[in-house]
Amino acid sequence: MTETTQSLFETRPPSTLAESAFVSLYGWVYEHSPWVAHQLYERGIAKNLDDPAALADAMAAIVNGAVDDDKLSLLRAHPDLAGKLALADLTESSQSEQKGAGLDQCTQGELARFTELNDLYKQKFGFPFIFAVKGFHRTDILEAFERRVKNDPETEFNEAIAQVHRIAKLRLEAL
Predict the structure, then answer these.
(1) Which distant-in-sequence residues (6+ apart) come within 8 Å of 117 by Cβ?
(2) Are the CB atoms for 59 and 70 separated by under 8 Å?
(3) For residue 137, which of 93, 98, 87, 102 has the smallest C-alpha distance?
(4) Fewer CB within 10 Å, N side or C side of the chain?
């Protein structure tokens, strides 16, 4: 296998990295929240975490063990889906993920509905709607948005955290 076809996990296993390198390589997995990678590193990175699924589970455990205020900050670090700024000012990962779902190709009506739902959702829950878009079309996402905006706050907080975990796992698998 050549260097170009090897995964990051093969060329630079997490267990071999210094903290600065680990946070540099994995701190972005949870949107604008490098504290997840920092805390995991402080707990120890063993060889069993040299696997994307195991690393995803360990990072999820850090988030799940965090206080609700930290979880809320993590949720608030996420961008609106197809929101007012559409794909402007997103991280490279978020932009790629949203484009892959066709959110950059919304009709005027779809964009208006996404904007309306984004505003309603943030007013109701205090954080943006989060959906792991990979594998879904924008119409699927809009349908989920319509359903989830009706959830109670506790249910939606838990669903948003679950979606954040799915995004992180998908990002790690892509490496």
Answers:
(1) 129, 142, 145, 146, 149
(2) no
(3) 102
(4) N
**pLDDT score, position 114:** 93
Catalytic residue among 38, 78, 137, 165: 78
CA 173/CA 134 separation, integer angstroms: 12
| Residue 59: both structure tokens together | 């990072």
Average pLDDT over residues 68-88: 80
Burial of 81 (0-12, 13-18, 19+ CB in 10 A): buried
pTM: 0.87
Structural domains in the chain, sorted by start: 9-71 (no CATH), 79-174 (1.10.3330.10)
User: Over the range 108-127, which residues count as b (16 or more CB within 10 Å of their CB) and which as e?
Assistant: eebbebbbebbeebeeebeb
- Does 137 qualify as catalytic in the annotation? no
